Task: structure prediction
Amino acid sequence: MAKGELNKLLQKGLTGWEVGLIAIKDFIGVREDHKKPTFSKAEFGRMKDSLKTAKDIEDYNKLINVLDVVDEALYVADICELSAIVDLGSLEQLTSYGIARANIELHLTMIPKIVTRKQLDDLGEEEREEILGMVWAFSSLAQERAISLTDKTEPDYRYTIKAWEEIPEEDLPLFEKHLPQAEKEISKLTENLSFIEEDGEKSYQAKDLYEAGMEEIKTMADEISASYIGMTRFRHRRLAVIQDPPESAVDKNGHYIDRHGPPFTRFGPTLASALTDRGEGENMIAILSKRIRNNVRTFYAIKTVMEQLTEVLEVNLLESVTGWDDRLKNALEVYNETTGNLQSLLPKPKDKNSFFFGENLPEYLQALPLFDLKRLTPSKTSIKKARERITKILGEGWWMQDLLYLFEYPDGWTKKQAEEELGLTSEDLR
Result:
């Protein structure tokens, strides 16, 4: 700065607050805008030496403390943002790998599963035993019979409804009109059968119902097709029966030997293929997820403090932070979208044989989390507290104390975690 301009400022008289703000603005200009310093060290020393009152010196020291904190905080925020993005990339690699495997499995379901006639018969017998081992509630039996009665009287619906849950809501009255007759027929068929009563409803063994001649159960048990076995046992794959196979192609049970092994042993990036079991994969996901949450939470706590300081000091401290924020939000959005797509392919409890879920899809992928940014950013209450403290006093220790106000979440840090993750002492946390 020109010597004359500095002299004018000194003659006018500078307060400690003004000198501190000049130091912060000069620092931000150099750090954020890559400008040359407005004042040399010697010139700044002259301004500092001009401060005489205790109040000016105290105000100056407060703002220099803020300057030191801002320098450190911006560095930490940058590291947290970059670390979170790197860890999200590692989780995305697992996610993308899982989706690729699911898609490959979907296409492989079009390739028939080769079985021998003996193997098909054995599989059919296993299915029959499972069906006859089921337990049916009276209401479910009545619904099955109502569907059968509707099939006989309503040709348009024949073979289009497989279960009561599949009936469109607007068509339910058509089926429900047969329920009274169905309940009478099932009551008569089961009047001499043993039953289990739970919550006021009777349930019956499928084997007893079969022997009593219930046509719906007999159809299920006696008309098991190869397509049904392929659906329940081999993820919807069709079965191809090999005729008169050579002895070398069958095992001691007469079943076809698949010499090619699991279909995915030669696929997958290093990270995913190295994870050979559910426990190992889930452990890696848990470690990465914890690091991401902690880094994101720390970044937004720092960002909030910077926002409050910007308003209080009327100095823009957010130029770099805003860019980092945009990158981090974009990375989280892309990850959540990719992981959400994967979760739509994962099996549901009632749909374990889903056509869209390969039997070789790594189970540990079910542990992949979605990140809710609202739960990782400061609450309105904690922001208000930080604002009040910053406005009231910028004294020793304000930085760590105000940062801790911004971790008020059900899944937020405990006092011990804050000590470990931020390097705080018990004195800082008072």
